[in-house]
Amino acid sequence: MTKRRGISPVIATVIIVAVTIAVAIAVAFWMTGIVGLFTAAEKLEITYAYANPTQAGWDVTLSVRNTGTTTTSIDMVIINGVQAGSTGCGGAALGTTLPLTLNPGDEGTITITVNRDGTCGPTTFKSGVSIEVKLHSTGGKEYPKLLVLP
């Protein structure tokens, strides 16, 4: 009868450790890809906002930058709780075509014409009145900015 011999316990341990390390590296690369998908974040930043007086009222200008990691679009502008350009906000008109799509790192400008003595909800636009302008994104987030009409 011949004696059979297997691999030594040291060699078996080395093989098991090598296979375990290879599987761990593969799982790490796979998880990195999945984490990258779930960590895409929408973040808009209003870099500046101002209101220039005109004879008819004010031209409001907002500069917005996408500082997030995913492309986003601004689909609505809300003034004092009422959507600009809607029937409840006849005193303000958008000068920018929406939706405004911004890739990560892009910057865009939104202009709004506000009429003197115009109304937006319960607010009548006059000098010294504060208006809250919110930018609503397609991701469902709102980014507010408070302005005082000069």
Provide the descriptors you would attach to this structure in a database record.
alpha+beta, five-stranded antiparallel beta sheet, four-stranded antiparallel beta sheet, 11 strands, 43% strand, rod-shaped
How are the secondary structure elements laid out?
Blueprint: H1 9-38, E1 44-53, E2 57-66, E3 72-79, E4 82-83, E5 92-94, E6 100-102, E7 107-115, E8 119-120, E9 123-124, E10 130-137, E11 142-148
Antiparallel strand pairs: 1-2, 2-7, 3-4, 3-6, 3-10, 5-7, 8-9, 10-11
Helix content: 10-25%
Between the first and last Cα atoms, what is the distance in angstroms? 105 Å
Oligomer: single chain
Overall number of domains: 1
Number of helices: 1
Got a strand count?
Answer: 11
CATH class: Mainly Beta
Under CATH, the topology is which? Answer: Immunoglobulin-like
Proportion of β residues? 35-45%
Structural shape:
rod-shaped
Give me the secondary-structure category: alpha+beta
Provide the CATH superfamily. Answer: PCu(A)C copper chaperone
Major β-sheet profile:
5 strands, antiparallel
What is the CATH architecture assignment?
A: Sandwich
Enumerate the spans where pLDDT stays under 50 for 5 or more consecutive residues: none
The ordered H/E elements are HEEEEEEEEEEE
Arithmetic mean of pLDDT? 89
Rounded to the nearest angstrom, the radius of gyration is: 29 Å
